[in-house]
Design brief:
The protein has 4 domains: 1-74, no CATH class; 85-152, no CATH class; 164-252, no CATH class; 272-369, no CATH class. Helix content is 63%, strand content 0%. The protein has 20 helices and no strands. The protein has helices at 3-13, 19-30, 33-45, 52-60, 67-79, 86-93, 106-116, 123-133, 136-146, 165-175, 177-189, 195-211, 218-230, 243-252, 257-266, 272-285, 289-301, 309-319, 322-334, 339-346. The radius of gyration is 23 Å and the shape is globular. The N and C termini lie far apart (58 Å).
């Protein structure tokens, strides 16, 4: 088929479409998966006033014969807050033969997406896939989605494997922290891994012990490093440059009044990453909106958003808090980019799962609390 004829067919099949949607139709017609991904992303994340036509276009691709195109359509529908593509992702998982996407089985990408958007109803099918493939990705998804009801046992799922103890500790803590205490306490004393991984192994062990209700020395171990992260200190040259931040992130997800107070202090850090993690965990893991509100209002009252406009405004929009929304409206009057309208109107209803896993080890709601 000539390019001219293809262009005519694309134009006819997308009558009334805007430029983004025409590019999407053209990309699908090309069969180039990289181009298709780029076009779907551009159409979804554009700053247009109405994304409903894009949503309808994506829904139409859920029946496309190419499973990669079906996956991308499902992925961006979830970004838009539309979970109607759930059955499409399940059908991709049920494919007998794996399809390659970026040197990885497409079925694993589908599992990742179901885990990211907390699709607990997918557990039976993910478990079926796990029993057939013993996929570590499916195993981790089952633990994340199922928690204590996950149909897998971290101690026996891979009898021939020899992971570092901290890996098993983390898996046990996801299922039920109390199952992890014996191995976690031993791992904290002796990580039984190369020195380069020892600190992170102890951090995981301390985190698991705290989640199980233990206290010292685990709390102080993470607290000392977390305070260094808040002070924007950097580890010694031979250490992991992010180890203090990692300790801060592990501690941030633990339900404890002391953690809430520490997170409130973190909002004055000069390390923007620490402030971002502190805000998200205060709000979603520690019911600390009061402290977070003050910090966000201070941020919005400035002429520049030091924490990043996307981070700040999508967080404020997700909270639906009248006082914060008013501050954002005031900010928007000084900002010609239209970012606040983008997040509060055009993307209203987008799920927090689009971004929240970048800032939390685990969510309070994931733990069933």
């Amino acid at each position: 088929m000539s390019r001219h004829l293809l262009a005519l067919l694309v134009s006819f099949g997308c009558a009334g479409c805007d430029a983004y949607e025409q590019e999407t139709v053209s990309a699908v017609s090309s069969g180039d998966h990289a181009e298709i991904s780029r076009a779907f992303h551009a159409a979804t994340y554009s700053k247009r006033t109405n994304l409903e036509s894009t949503r309808k276009l994506l829904v139409g691709y859920l029946e496309h014969p190419d499973p990669v195109i079906r996956f991308y359509a499902a992925k961006y529908l979830y970004v838009l807050g539309d979970s109607s593509s759930f059955s499409t992702l399940i059908s991709i998982m049920q494919l007998n033969d794996g399809v390659d996407l970026h040197d990885r089985d497409l079925r694993l990408w589908a599992i990742d997406l179901l885990r990211q958007y907390r699709e607990k109803r997918a557990v039976p099918e993910i478990y079926r896939f796990f029993t057939e493939t013993k996929s570590i990705d499916a195993f981790n998804a089952l633990l994340r989605l199922g928690g204590k009801n996950a149909p897998v046992d971290p101690l026996s799922a891979y009898p021939d494997a020899r992971p570092y103890p901290s890996t098993t500790v983390f898996s046990l803590a996801l299922k039920d922290p109390h199952l992890a205490t014996e191995l976690a306490s031993a791992t904290f004393i002796d990580p039984k891994c190369p020195d380069i991984y020892a600190t992170q192994s102890r951090q995981i062990a301390a985190w698991a012990m705290l989640r199980a209700g233990a206290d010292e020395p685990y709390f102080s171990y993470l607290e000392v490093q977390a305070e260094k992260a808040i002070a924007a200190e950097r580890p010694p040259a031979k250490e992991d440059s992010n180890q203090y931040r990692k300790a801060f992130e592990y501690l941030a997800s633990v339900s404890d009044p002391r953690v809430k107070a520490l997170l409130a202090r973190s909002l004055e850090s000069t390390d923007d990453r620490v402030v971002q993690v502190g805000l998200v965990n205060l709000i979603f893991n520690q019911t600390g909106l009061g402290d977070a509100r003050k910090r966000l209002i201070t941020e919005l009252n400035g002429r520049t958003l030091n924490l990043g406009s996307e981070f700040t405004l999508q967080l404020v929009a997700a909270l639906n808090d009248p006082e914060l929304s008013q501050s954002a409206e005031n900010f928007s009057r000084m900002d010609s980019s239209g970012q606040w309208r983008l997040h509060s109107v055009i993307r209203k209803g987008w799920p927090i799962y689009n971004w929240i896993d970048d800032y939390v080890v685990i969510l309070k709601t994931d733990r069933g609390e």
